[in-house]
Amino acid sequence: MSEHDPEHIVLMQRMVELAERQTRLAAERTEQSAERSYMNAERTLSVWTRTALSLMIFGIAVDRFGLLLRHAPWRPRMVDPLLPNPLSTLGGVILIALGVLVVLTCGARYLVYARAWRRVHAWPPAHAPYLACAFAVLVALFGIALLAVLLVFTGSRPGH
């Protein structure tokens, strides 16, 4: 079998085709892995956003629970029954503020990652980082509104 033998040439062409196919498949796997990495980052942001919302809701519950702790049901009420317990209000404010901090931090980190990822890759179909970040900002605004309401209504009650 010589180098110029037709069978040898066909075999070499087939080897080149296989090598090119393997290269294409490896590139596709690399791109799929990159897309999975991006989707994982998006999923992580959604989990942290859910955690931040949970902190905020728990903060509201802690604040409202203070109304129950302030007055025992068997004791006569000498003061306003809707006067909150300052310690529970403080705990609620801290939890809500922590939720706002968590969602803003995670949204910013996700945006930094997404922009760095975009420098190397094309966006996955029907995806861009701005919707996820916009939702994180909306959750943060919700938390800030909760803080404002909590602090305004607490500050306007008698005895504060």
What would you say about this model in short?
The protein is built from three helices and no strands. The chain is mainly α.
Q: What does this protein look like?
A:
- This protein is mainly alpha-helical and 160 residues long.
- The protein has one domain (6-155).
- It contains 3 helices and no strands.
- The chain has helices spanning 6-70, 86-120, 129-155.
- Helix 1 packs antiparallel against helix 2 (86-120), helix 1 (6-70) packs parallel to helix 3 and helix 2 runs antiparallel to helix 3.
- The longest helix is centred in the first third of the chain and has 65 residues, at 6-70.
- The chain is rod-shaped.
- Mean pLDDT is 81; it is low at 156-160.
Total domain units = 1
Q: How confident overall, as mean pLDDT?
A: 81
Along the chain, the helix and strand elements come as HHH
Approximate strand percentage: under 5%
Label the overall shape: rod-shaped
Record field, number of beta strands: 0
DSSP summary: helix tally: 3
Helix content: over 70%
Model regions low in confidence, pLDDT < 50 over at least 5 residues: 156-160
Mind describing the biggest β-sheet?
none
Distance from first to last alpha carbon: 100 Å
How much is the radius of gyration in Å? 29 Å
Oligomer: single chain
Structural class: mainly alpha
SSE layout and pairing:
Elements: H1 6-70, H2 86-120, H3 129-155
Helix pairs in contact: 1-2, 1-3, 2-3
Please give a handful of descriptors for the protein shown.
3 helices, 0% strand
